[in-house]
Design the sequence.
């Protein structure tokens, strides 16, 4: 199933993430795609809030993986922008989180496409300058819980 949504500001993008965080089951992998500055981290912050995580959530660009364990489910937040070879993911133990009891969110997921589970939820965030600075088109592919 493919859904296209629109947001008109960072708060709406975060709200979409929050709603997903409240509803997603353990073992969900989200492949998040989009250019620099489209709001991937804002979406991640909303997702974390929906999971009940209150600590600050930032993109783990230099560490590849940031774990947050205080919510209703753990969040494994990956930023694989700096990955040059998908095999590097083995060093951070991606299999444990992808097939574990938390939510895995992978920014720049296209860099490790071959490692993603077929049932992952794929989300692309895009700007459209003609629609305004804060406009985002969000395309979601995969099975979503009721209420999204």
Sequence:
């Amino acid at each position: 199933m493919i859904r296209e949504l629109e947001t008109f500001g960072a708060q709406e993008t975060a709200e979409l993430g929050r709603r997903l965080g409240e509803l997603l089951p353990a073992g969900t992998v989200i492949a998040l795609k989009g250019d620099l500055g489209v709001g991937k981290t804002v979406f991640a912050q909303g997702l974390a809030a929906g999971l009940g995580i209150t600590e600050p959530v930032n993109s783990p660009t230099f560490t590849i993986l940031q774990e947050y364990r205080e919510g209703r489910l753990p969040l494994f937040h990956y930023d694989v922008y700096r990955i040059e070879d998908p095999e590097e993911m083995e060093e951070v133990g991606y299999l444990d989180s992808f097939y574990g009891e938390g939510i895995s969110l992978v920014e720049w997921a296209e860099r490790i496409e071959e490692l993603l589970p077929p049932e992952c939820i794929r989300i692309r965030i895009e700007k459209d300058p003609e629609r305004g600075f804060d406009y985002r088109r969000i395309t979601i592919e995969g099975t979503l819980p009721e209420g999204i």
About this structure: Residues 2-141 form a domain with the Rossmann fold fold (CATH 3.40.50.300).
